Amino acid sequence: SLYGLAERVVATESLVFLAEQFEFLQPHLDAVMPAAKKPFLQQFYSQTVSTASELRKPVYWIVAAKAIDYEQMLLLMANVKWDVKEIMSQHNVYVDALLKEFEEFNRRLNDVSKRVRIPLPVSNILWEHCIRLANRTLVEGYANVKKCSNEGRALMQLDFQQFLMKLEKLTDIRPIPDKEFVETYIKAYYLTENDMESWIKEHREYSTKQLTNLVNICLGTYINKKARQKLLATIDDIDRPKR
Predict the structure, then answer these.
(1) Contact by Cβ (8 Å): 137, 70
(2) In terms of pTM, does the model score above 0.70?
(3) For the segment 210-241, what is each residue's pLDDT rounded down to a tens digit?
């Protein structure tokens, strides 16, 4: 039942529909409301009516979080050998496993839509949530890598391109959410020591662990201990305000 999706749609979209009716009624209510009560009416519209559609994201997020087995993907990625010595022409099995999860999600979505019509904004939010979570899981998987060669980094790019190519056939959402989040992280593997410092300061969207992995795995074999400590200190400075 996709974690009560039909019931979630009925509840949330009913609320969104009610909010839309209140929008239509606003001029009439404004005209009949005593002047002393008008601030309360304005507050009702700004704080309640206008936020109804925003409820969609948290209500449908739990469906997206449970519909795809992101943990299984991390386990599969952990089994990949990334310190390969030659350029690979075949992508890894975790990509196929992830795509199969999305195909199954699509099928279940169609099944639910036979019971309750799923409006396009809802479908788009569900797909967007799932894709964002998948792409963030990919970056987390790459940040768990202990050894990686240049050919291994090329393999990451091959895997991600294969995922995007097949995913675009399943959904009409464009652009693919958080696509740059993954691509930027993979490309960071090729940075030099000097470029890495400024890159770390510019890309605060990545976790401390993800940034630390770039320094240790990508530059670890090319820079001395003092330079590495300096970059790790930069990451620590960025992380400190979050604590």
Answers:
(1) yes
(2) yes
(3) 988 888 886 656 666 777 788 888 888 776 65
193: enclosing H helix or E strand: helix 193-202
> Is residue 58 scored above 90 in pLDDT?
yes
Q: What angle do CA 83, 88, 92 make, to 5 degrees?
A: 80
Query: Residue 1 contacts by C-beta under 8 Å, 6 or more apart in sequence?
Result: 112
List C-alpha distances in Å: 152 to 66, 103, 213, 218, 231.
Answer: 30, 27, 15, 11, 23
Any idea which residue has 């993979």 for tokens? 186
Whether the link from the prior residue into 34 is cis, omega within 30° of 0, is no
**How wide is the angle at C-alpha 223 spanned by C-alphas 77 and 195, nearest 5°?**
80
- The tokens for 2 are 């996709």
The length of the chain in residues reads 243
The residues near 19 (Cβ < 8 Å, ≥ 6 apart) are 49, 50, 52, 53
Q: Among candidates 12, 136, 115, which has minimal Cα distance to 63? A: 12
Residue type, 33: M
